[in-house]
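Inputs:
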Amino acid sequence: MTRTTADVTFLRGYNQALVMAVGRTVPTFERSTIVQATGLTPQAVSKVIARLTADGLIRTAGVRRPGIGKPAVVYELVPDSRYAIGAHVARRTLRLVLVDLAGAVHHSAVSPLPDDFTPQQLLHALRTGIGAITAGRDLRGRLTGVGIGMIGPLDHEHGLVRDAHGLRHWHDVPLRELAEAHLGLPVHLDKDVTAGVTAEAWRHGGTFGDAVLIMVESGIGGGFWLGGTAHRGAHTNAGEFGHTVVELDGPLCVCGRHGCLEIVHNRAAEAGDIARAARVLAVGVVNLLQTLDLAHVVLAGADLLRYAQPYLAAVEEAVHTDVPRADWLTTDVTLSSLGADVIAAGAAMQVLDRHYGVPELALLQG
Amino acid sequence: MTRTTADVTFLRGYNQALVMAVGRTVPTFERSTIVQATGLTPQAVSKVIARLTADGLIRTAGVRRPGIGKPAVVYELVPDSRYAIGAHVARRTLRLVLVDLAGAVHHSAVSPLPDDFTPQQLLHALRTGIGAITAGRDLRGRLTGVGIGMIGPLDHEHGLVRDAHGLRHWHDVPLRELAEAHLGLPVHLDKDVTAGVTAEAWRHGGTFGDAVLIMVESGIGGGFWLGGTAHRGAHTNAGEFGHTVVELDGPLCVCGRHGCLEIVHNRAAEAGDIARAARVLAVGVVNLLQTLDLAHVVLAGADLLRYAQPYLAAVEEAVHTDVPRADWLTTDVTLSSLGADVIAAGAAMQVLDRHYGVPELALLQG
DNA sequence: CCTATTACGCAACGCTGTTGCTAAATTCTC
DNA sequence: GAGAATTTAGCAACAGCGTTGCGTAATAGG
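Outputs:
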């Protein structure tokens, strides 16, 4: 729910989000921590903390006795004050996770989906799986919604699946509406890779710089986090990183072009030459760094994590040797900290982000 | 000057910027236009318009008599209420332009720079050129500053030129400070391509979507406008689009990698095969669309504009045939509307944007 | 026991945009 | 032609935000 106009409620949400971002990244914090990190006055911090405490989002956690003066009250996030459920819809499997306000994964389960599954079959699987998660827990009033990370193309804004790649029954399916009606919970729909990079950003709080999450899993995609928010592009279609040409006049790709990163990579991988596949991927990653100048590269996806070390090594080497002026061009390369859960967990965090993250200010319409 | 905390002055700046963005894109507007475009209440629009009128930024321009009811007052931007000077520093030339609040170019002049010029020589040329522009005009109180668009790499935030490509005397030069002291005006320093794309965005007002400006001029670069703001990356180094590999094991590039877009393109161009050079560039453009899903592609740069039509045709064709699902994936391809002035004009508009554009809200420090 | 220091809240304030209402200017209707 | 209807736009009071000024509580040191 983007707002177009900026009113005082935006201020409230914005400054509260700053405090929550600090709370996610540190075990405990004091008012002075917030003052320093945000630039707010102590009095403003008092008011923000009072509101967050009233909502049960943060709580006191003792006092600090540093020496002279009145001891400072120590606060901490209340991780189990809010939850969200995340779903990763892949071609053959549905992964469901339960994530708390701090971004920790409390439950993870994978179930198979029927071959060429229909929207109805997915809705059924979602309800069954979510029922299993909520059955043993008392989440009343604390479950903020369900996030769905799915293969595209889709329309994030309208919650519409346009044409899920390789799934025949998915053409212009209003999945968000259907799922909200079927589940009785707010639903957020996004591309899998975009959800994934949100997971990394959310868990790092407010200091996470421009980043890409590279996902290799029956196809190669990239999720972007730019300028403190997910980058989806003009039609929610950003991230088709696998379909960038790295070899003019190379082998024909399913997308119709020649020499796409994905086809070149996959041929090497299918031939068992993981080292070469990793090097090809690394060339693509360096292309992204040259284009976008990113601070973080996160590697994910089942087909990559199966050979995590060779991939990590190849990308790290390329990043450190192929990008000139590496003294100030620092970019860190990591594996996804959540492993195979990253997409589903990120989808859940997108729901949390809508409530407790930095509010959006939409630009003009039209 | 990014602010970390959100206070009421942010609201004022934000909503004023929305109105100004409307004012730039239409000849005249009414209060109801603003209400519809922004979602503000009529009363809030009254207050915003009163403030902008008091500052001389907008003025009444008659009334509209549509039929029944009290006639609506028509407003317009006052283009000559504010100016900014823009400089495009290239390897051998300095281009200076005078731009008004609406983004119109009032004056444009190119002067040669000495071979391998020094910072002092550039400062001298800037002062001379700016003196010539201001001499015949009364700009007192209306000149907001000077924007400099320059080849990188540089550090936008600190106004520091790290290592201007191919210029020996430019290593860690604090150009912004030097120029502010030398010229007595606020100075904004940015990469040439980022300034360029700002020109396109500023002139289109608040409805300009994600975009890239491709610049071919002794090198190939790209300036990005993403999510309503310029994307500079983690170290102001985004845009090295020419150094993305499109031909694995291709010819060696100056950057140390093989098969970069720039070297492949330049070889074709040097061989006189403009059609092939344009097709190679188009492959790179489609790569960007696949990665970032952009709404606008703007072509610029002296070496491209010399053969504008072949380039435009090749890129348009590639965008329309190589990107699948073109029915909803609409991307427009245009030549820079300002031609050779685009970089300098964009640098000037960056200065205007800092004052009258959407204010930034920085994330947490640290 | 007094003082310095640090933490933190209360109260008043200035500034947003919002809400409720009134006034002005025009066309339409009888 | 006079009153009704419609549209525009401002005035006044209000709520909510962060800010400023100042008072109070809690600790250590002398």
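Remarks. Residues 274-292 of chain A form the longest helix (19 residues). The CA atoms of residues 25 and 204 of chain A lie 6 Å apart.
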